[in-house]
Structure formats: structure tokens, C-alpha cells
């Protein structure tokens, strides 16, 4: 019993650490977008927007990766899917780090960046969904919200690592050296982190939920694709996963990851200063995430979601006004008003989304609902709001966009979701009538 408990806790720790690596690797592209624009897109008009769009294209490949890895994770095991995805991410990160610039390869440099970013997106399709499923299934009853929230908290640690290292290098190196080779160091670090996850994940043990569902797959009704079973038997769960993840992805990427980029575009702050405020956003998110996960265990997922949704919708405009403030304290308050509800929503969603599904097809169904939302409203939200600001000249466009999108997705999500905080895992796993 003691060995089993030790193995369970070790597996949860390894799984949770995986989101540090995932979000460092995936978000570092956006934090270095100014340097990537000069390295690979300098001759083209709108080079910065092209770099952002390339980063966003990676999100389009997340659903494809989700379908492949979701099927594998439901059929063969969560662990195996996560081991393979780490290897693919390492290849993508090392590839970008070592890729020659436009001066050497011409247009092929931009094409290869696009292909490597797509490969990273394919890999990430397995990551966050697989990790949150693993943590939710491994947690004790009554603690699933807190346990799964560490996937969200650690993703913010990964983002903090990305923005923190970017900030440090921006201050430590002359601008010319940062543009010439400094940004490559950040991608090399990402490759090393991803490669280190391969042996660690091989030590993980599968969850009881997967073991039970795997045994059920011997029955005739469970022999077909887990994804097809989820689409046929649990379409409402997939829809709810999509709606919850729409709010979560839009707020995360706009309210936390996009903060330095927004400040550079909309204010006169220097690059090092904008990255510093991005670090503040990530720190705030890390601190509040596990506490909101605990609150979701105590009060229920729906109630906490409702409070967070009201904060996002009502607080977006004041927050962006504060970001344009004349004082650093005003900017910090604006950053906090954006980061807290974004981090909180991700914390609650980490348990609430996998709880929408029964054990059979959970990885596949959640992967599709989550990754389609992230592809549409996560990676492309920064591109959309940047374009809106350029076209309208209104620096408050991100606030209007976030409030409208979160209202349209958040209210139906609250009405349709299963509120499973006080249910046992066996009850959550049970087939729907």
C-alpha cells in the first residue's frame, strides 16, 4: 500500500511538472516574437504580425495532435502518449533554436519556422489535456479541484520561466546580441526541458480510471475508437469542454501571455519593462491558482466559475485602462485585474472539464473540445486584437473582444455543465444513462 501511494504521488508530481515544460516551450515563441520577426520575416511587410500569426498556426495543429494522442491515450495509456509528445516537442524546440535566419535560407527560413511551430502544436495537443486527466483521475475525492489546479499553476510557472528568462536576457545582453543569438538560448533551454521529460514520464503509473476503462474496452461496445464513442455518447460533454476552454484560452493568452506584447504596442514602455510586467502577471497567477482550486472543491465548480466570469466581463475595460496609466502602480493593478480571473478560470477548468466525461473516451473527448477552443480563441486572440487595434486605432479593443467572447461562451457553459465537485471518482467515471 505504501509503495502504491508513493508511486501515485510521484506520478502526479511528474505529470504536474510537465505543464511547466509545455507552457515554457509553447509560450516562449510569443515572448520572443519581436526577435523572431527580425530573424525570419524582416523583408516582409508586417513582419511582427507574421511572427504572431506563425505562433498562432501552432494552435491549429493542436486538434490534430489531440485526435491522435487522445485515441492513443484512451486505448493504450496516458503515460505512453505523454512520453511521445515530449520527444516531439524537444525536436521542434531544438529545430527552431538551430535554424538559420532569412539571410541564409531566404523564404525557406520562414517556411521551416512554420513547420516546426506546427510540430510543436501537434505535440501540445497531447499535453495539457493528458496531464489534467491524469491529475484528476489520480486525486483523492474532494480534492480533485486542488490537485488538477496544479496543472494550471505549473503552466503559469512555465510562462513565468519563459518571460523571466526573456526579461533577464533582454536586460543582460545588448540589443544586438539578443537579436543575433540571445533568443536562441531560450529555445535551447526549452528543448532540454522537453527531452528531460521522456525518462521522467516513463516512471509514471497509470490511473485506476484508465485501468477500469481499458478493461471495459474488451466489451463489444467499447472496441471502436474512443473518440467516436465520445462523439456519439458524450456530445454535450465535448460542447461544455469547448465552451469552458474558450473562456479559459482567450483569457489566459490575452490576460497573461499577451501582456508584454500589448504594453509594447500600446504604450511607450521599453521591451525590458513590458517583460517585467509580464512577469508580474505570471507571479500573480501562480499564487492565486491553487487557492481558487481549493475554493472550487469547497463551493462547487459552477459557483466559482460564475464569480470569475463576472470579474472577466466587468473588469476587462477598467484593467486595460489601467495598463495605459501613467504610473507603474496603475499598470500593476491592471495586470492583477486581468491575471486573477484568468488564472482562476484555468484552475477550476482543470478539474471541471475532465469531470464532464466518463472514463471511457475522456482523454479523446476532452482533447478535442479543449484543443479546438484553444486553436480558435487562444492562439488567434492576440492576433485578432492586435489587428483590431491597428485597424481601429483603439487600444481598448482587447477589452471589448474579451468581454464579448467570454459572455457568449461562459453563460452557456454554466448552464450546461455537470457540477461534479462533491461526487466520487467512481460516480464521475460511470457511464451516462
Describe the structure.
The longest helix has 32 residues, at 107-138. The chain has a single domain (1-429), classed as Up-down Bundle (Growth Hormone, Chain: A). Helix 3 (47-60) crosses helix 7 and helix 12 (235-257) packs antiparallel against helix 16 (328-355). Helix content is 83%, strand content 0%. It is built from 20 helices and no strands. By secondary structure, it is mainly α. The model has no long low-confidence stretch (mean pLDDT 87). It has helices spanning 2-31, 33-40, 47-60, 62-75, 78-98, 102-105, 107-138, 144-172, 175-201, 208-216, 226-233, 235-257, 259-266, 271-299, 301-323, 328-355, 362-377, 380-392, 397-416, 425-429. It is globular. It is found in: Cell membrane. InterPro entries: H+-coupled_symporters, MFS, MFS_dom, MFS_trans_sf, Sugar_transporter_CS. Belongs to the major facilitator superfamily. Metabolite:H+ Symporter (MHS) family (TC 2.A.1.6) family.
Beta-strand segment tally: 0
Point out poorly predicted stretches: none
- Looking at the structure, the CATH topology is Growth Hormone, Chain: A
Biggest beta sheet attributes: none
Class inferred from helices and paired strands: mainly alpha
**Do you know the CATH architecture?**
Up-down Bundle
What's the CATH superfamily, by name? MFS general substrate transporter like domains
DSSP helix fraction: over 70%
User: What overall geometry do the principal axes of the alpha carbons give?
Assistant: globular
- State Rg: 21 Å
Total helical segments: 20
Average pLDDT, all residues: 87
- What share of the residues does DSSP label as strand, in percent? under 5%
